[in-house]
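2024-03-11 09:14:02 INFO receiving multi-entity request
2024-03-11 09:14:02 INFO entity count = two
2024-03-11 09:14:03 INFO echoing inputs for audit
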Amino acid sequence: METESIVIRHARIIDPSRQLDRVGDILLGNGEIVAAGRLGLDRIPEGARVIDGTGLVVAPGFIDLHCHLREPGFEYKETIAAGAKAAAKGGFTTLCAMPNTDPPIDNAAMVEFIHQKARKESAVRILPIGCVTKGRKGHELSEMEELATAGVAAFSDDGDPVYDANLMKLALTYSSDLGLVISNHCQERSLSCNGVMAEGPVATHLGLDGIPAAAEEAMIARDIALAEATGGRLHVAHLSTVGSVPLVREAKDRGLLVTAEVCPHHLTVTDQWVLGAKGAASVAAGGLAYDTSTKVYPPLRAQSDVEALIVGLADGVIDCIATDHAPHDLTSKQVTYQEAAFGISVLETALGSMLQLVHSSKLSMAAMIDRLTVGPANVLGEKYADLASLQPGTPADIVIFDPDQEWTVDTSEFASKGKNTPLEGTTLKGRVVATIVAGNLVYEGPGLKIQEARGRT
Amino acid sequence: MSRSRTIDTPDIEGSSASEPASRKHVLDLDDFSQEEISAVLDSARSMKEVLGRDIKKVPALRGKVVVTLFYEASTRTRISFEEAGKVLSADVINMSSSGSSAEKGESLLNTGLTIQAMGVDTIVIRHPHSGAPYLLAQQLDKVSIINAGDGLHAHPTQALLDLYTVRDKLGSLEGCKIVIVGDVLHSRVARSDIWGFAKMGAKVVLSGPNTLMPPDLIRSNNNIARSAFASLVEVDTNLDRAIEGADVVMALRLQQERQHAGFLPSLREYIRRWQVTDERMARANPGAMVMHPGPMNEGIEISNSIAHGGSSVIEEQVTNGVAIRMALLYKVTIGPAQQL
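2024-03-11 09:21:47 INFO inference complete, emitting structure
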């Protein structure tokens, strides 16, 4: 399909795939990047839409390695259509959809279903992830080659780990000729038990069962040993503990094919937030305690964990930021903390959360964008590299954002069906102004300035 | 996402006002000041006087409706709330999860909204999940909530009756030493008692197996951030040492399932190390009292002779529980207590 030409002028163009960070113009046409740099007026085609990018950042569209679109089976929590709109609002142009649907995505027909739905209802790219085991039951390997041929971008039983160590070893071995990672949700069940939040002072105070950090670290250590034994490609989903970072660092130092992701909430929110006061320090729990919007797996942890994860992300030990967008219906959260579903709706707040780290100088703007684009593309593999670049000739998947625009999170305005976020009512600094997928403007947000199409002269 | 968040969150910490703030809910003692606790104990004293009359009835809560909503088995807490309400002339309606719409799968929130819609003034709730009373307090805007025990979290009315019982005996809680023995990890009574006794100036020492202590209170564990409790208590797994100089020893109920879950090697070893016995009580201060929140496993956490011996105040705890619950029902339903 031929798309109109769009030119974005006077923007700060950041393209981590080429270490580019400069003010300039970028021209899109036929769904691709045509040119980036300082463009003379004569280079702008007649009829092109002109976006004033003054004060805005233009970057490759964000790639989310880890989100839950809930369809099929849980359409009351989220749909591909709603999740895709939320993604576009959040600046994401590619979503990897986890297969813990009902039925799960463990065969080629299910992959085709997701592709069909996405073609009809999604303005962003949807890459299905296939199950590691049949039915996500953890007993037998799924038909991984068939899934790969059908187009899955990775394998995962997310929501559950592959509990059985030998099966995980076999999965890494079997899939090692398929070129796709196995993303494992690392949680040693015999340690996490009935835990609902991080083990620690808040759990003690509130009388909630704690999940020890060792539940995550023990399984990461196991999986790294298995990756070493097999030469398989391991991707560690959603790191959350201070102790997980050196495990990954050391595995990479040894040259293993190990990558890792971290979620925005684990970089910006602590277990203090379970007390319901948005992290404010308090001796008493207060009436707002047991805020179920903070219940997530892995759990929100201590400030020391947050600091270590930020350092790990900044220095590249953690390859990428993934949202683990986990939308839920209201009823699943308007219950006791113990009964509440795990998960946070993240797609629409991810950028604002991540920019907190940029504004506080803990992470450079270029590194943040790298971890949202090149980082996840590298995990997926070479064939996805073009989605994370502004190089002329690559697909015109672009985000335009205003790093300084302040806004208050109001879940009633979410495109996602999941309104479950502890950030409700908080102010974030930095907001998506427009999202472009394959040259099409799929989201126009507050602050977007489109000039009259350039007429014939 | 919340329907209403108009809950009272009085800033009690650091408040030096002698007149306690009005209070809509009783959720835990962590947001009570020393002054407010003292006022409740004083009010309970006049309530206890009412309980000693020939005709145990005053019209204080006439025309008010109290629902006790119990999702867990209970004898003393439920009956004492019912008695407290009735002595004060409230209409008390008891609801338990069995035989109610909860059995048909109605959610706690919807049950709460239903009860509120009937014009009830106060809900007394016990629930196996920590924080259940907070859910109701956050979502219901017209009723007061009193926590009668939630999961592992809190049992503030039990803690207040414990404070009352000790103050009644010793005259003051300031400087007294209380040793709480047993399964602190799973004990809502211990959590609320720690807040209460510490706020009143008592020295709180915990003793029990490390596997039944919250991880941040285990002395040898330096890899975990300390909770608010850590600054309020001392922990000594050696009960013989911990009990020295104690004015109060409180044995916690040991659920026998804990052994099967691996927390304990055997009941035999638990009894040997942590049962409250005559020999151990001999190390405490002369006249030290023994408490138990009930129900007891006699012969496990407490010896038979101690449970029924001269140092036991376990039955007084039960009597005082009615007075405390009268004081709290009055406080949340009407306001600060006056002479009845």
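2024-03-11 09:21:48 INFO post-check: Chain B has two domains: 29-154+319-333, 156-317.
2024-03-11 09:21:48 INFO post-check: The first strand of chain B starts at residue 65 and ends at 70.
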